[in-house]
Design a protein that fits this description.
It contains one helix and nine strands.
Length: 150
């Protein structure tokens, strides 16, 4: 019986133009305890901050000319809490780290994640380096200073 020899063509992607998905760099964020919490298509430092509590704002849905961020949150939803704000109250549906139960994010609408227009990540809750405390974790004017400790 004769041998069957096939010819194969080798394709190279060096000539192909990069697609938007191949050029997008995903950012990974971890809880202080080291648990994976968030993967997102843009750095949290480059996203806008909320004026009331300085939380990072992640847009969940397209609206007009503003595009939604692509992200995945690995957190456990807990019961909502009522936070007192200047001029009223705010209901927060919080998401906690599945390992250490630290609150990492919240949204104004009931779970699941992305059910509302925005998701807010608490300032200082996440780090890009696993097992390292974020540099802004203790940058809060409401915390006691060394002089206040008796």
């Amino acid at each position: 019986m004769p041998k069957v020899v096939s010819r194969s063509a080798v394709s190279s992607s060096t000539d192909a133009r990069p697609t938007p998905s191949s050029t997008a760099a995903l950012r990974v964020y971890y809880c202080i305890c080291g648990e994976f919490i968030l993967v997102i298509d843009k750095s949290l430092a480059s996203l806008p901050r909320r004026q009331t509590d300085n939380a990072t704002v992640i847009r969940c849905h397209d609206s007009g000319d503003a595009k939604a961020r692509i992200f995945k949150l690995n957190a456990v939803a807990k019961d909502p809490i009522l936070v007192e704000r200047q001029g009223g109250h705010e209901k927060q549906y919080r998401f906690h780290c599945p390992r250490c139960a630290l609150p990492v994010a919240y949204q104004p609408t009931p779970p699941p994640v992305k059910s509302g227009p925005f998701l807010y990540v608490f300032k200082g809750a996440l780090s890009q380096i696993q097992g390292q405390v974020p540099p802004d974790a203790f940058d809060d004017g409401n915390l006691l200073s060394e002089n206040d400790i008796a």
